[in-house]
Structure formats: C-alpha cells, structure tokens
Amino acid sequence: MREKPSLLRIPIALTIAGSDSGGGAGLQADLKTFSANGVYGASVVTAVTAQNTLTVAAVHEIPSDIVAAQIKTVLDDLDVDAIKIGMLFSHDIIAAVVKALENSKIPVVLDPVMIAKSGDALLQDEAVSALKSLLLPKVDLLTPNLPEAARLLGVEEAGSIHEMKQQAGALLMLGPKAVLLKGGHGTGLTCTDILFCRGQEFVQLDAPRQNTKNTHGTGCTYSAAIAAELAKGKSMELSVRNAHAYLQNAIINADQLSIGSGHGPVHHFHNLWAN
C-alpha cells in the first residue's frame, strides 16, 4: 500500500474587506497577494461594490450579522495565522467585527480604507469615530496613507518626514501596537513610509516613486502582504520590509498589464507570470 504524502502546514491569512468587482483592490487584491506570497487566503465580505478602474458605481453593505457569522465560521474551522481588515463601510460592521474578534489572539493588520482611488467614499462619515474608538485599540498594525492619517487625526496632511513621524506618533496614541504611515500620496522623486512600533525607534522605508497610473489597490496589497508575512511568523518590522519590497516590484511591473482604461491594478503575480 502506498503511503499517503505528508500534509503541508500552509500559513493561513484571513481578509475582512469589501469586494472590488474590477479585481484590482479589496478582497480580490488581498487573496491574490496572499497567494503570490505563499499563504492560503480566506475571506469575509463586508460590502459588495460595483467598481472598475474608473469609478465605484454602487456599494451594497452586507448585514452586520452576516459579517459576524462569516468571521465565526472561518475561525471555528481554519487555523488562521493573521488577519487583514480593509473596507468596513459602517458603524454596525465595525462593531460586529470588533465583537467577533474580541477573544482572538491572532495578529490584525488594519488598512483604514476610506476613499477609493477614483475618489469615491468607502467609509461612512459617522463610522470614523467608531473606527477610532472601537477598532484601533485592538489592532497590531494600522496602515493609513497620508489623507487617511489626516482624517483620523483631524489635521492637515503631513508635508514632510518630520510631520509624518509626528502623525505616526499621534496615531499610535489612539491604541494600535504599531503604525505604518504610507507616503504614496506625497510628492517628490522618493516615496517614504514611516513604521513606528510601540517602544521602538522609527523605521524609514524609501523607494523611488514610479511614473505609472496603475496603482489601484496598492494599500490593500501592501497591508495584505504584511499580513501574509505575519502569518509566516515573521516579526512586524521584517513583515513590513518584505511587504514593502513585494509592493515596489508589483508597482514597477504594473505597466506590463493592460487592465481597464483608468487606474489599473498593480501586478500581484510579477514573480510568477511570464512577461
């Protein structure tokens, strides 16, 4: 009798996010990123968007009890190693996610999705306070871009590395264990991200700014890649560094793809697909 092959223990990451029907952002980008980085992906849908590379035409919120049921069902069966949270849309969904994860010890990466690349709102105004008070104190890493950080803090966008460090420190005071403030919305030839972990020094990550319009889903992809690395057992700093390198290559190779006529996606599978 032939012996059965030994089973592989594959790291598992869960994304709790909205669906992007165009496939470039949201949970579709997260699942692609998990797969590209050798991690099995599970998903919880918080909202369904009618979306392409040009616009978000409509948003349908998933009932909060269904969101909670999805989380419970996945965690009851799968040995999830890391969780990435993206679009939550409403106060009720935020509250449901917090309650569903209240006894979890799984590391959580929160990408505070507020505005789509097209400029459409993906988080209701009244949900911002719930995000700050209910969820931020529960997460291991918060990954806002410059506009999101400014909105969370009620200040102007950071215009320098010094201001980015100040805002990262202020965000850390809201409760997360670490903050990654992303500089993709900044200007200049260099794109700078600031990582600030509680009790540690600032870490600055620099990369040449790429001349491409195909940057749809960069925030989703970045946070999902970090979650994938955490699922493999890497430290927070190493997870962020590895994810930063992966994202830069996904952006550099984005123009190899011809997807839509607006802001196309980054190339999640740049290491796997032939040119």
Can you say what the CATH homologous superfamily is? Answer: Ribokinase
User: Into which percentage range does the β-strand content fall?
Assistant: 15-25%
Q: How many structural domains in the coordinates?
A: 1
In which order are the strands of the major sheet placed?
3-2-1-4-5-6
Beta-strand segment tally: 9
What is the CATH class designation?
Alpha Beta
CATH architecture: 3-Layer(aba) Sandwich
Structure description:
With 275 residues, this protein is of the alpha/beta class. The protein has one domain (12-256): Ribokinase (UDP-N-acetylmuramoyl-L-alanine:D-glutamate ligase, 3-Layer(aba) Sandwich), CATH 3.40.1190. Helices cover 34% and strands 20% of the residues. It is built from eight helices and nine strands. The strands form two sheets. It has a six-stranded mixed sheet. Strands 7-8-9 form a three-stranded antiparallel sheet, sandwiched between helices. Helix 1 packs across helix 7 and helix 3 runs parallel beside helix 4 (128-135). The protein is globular.
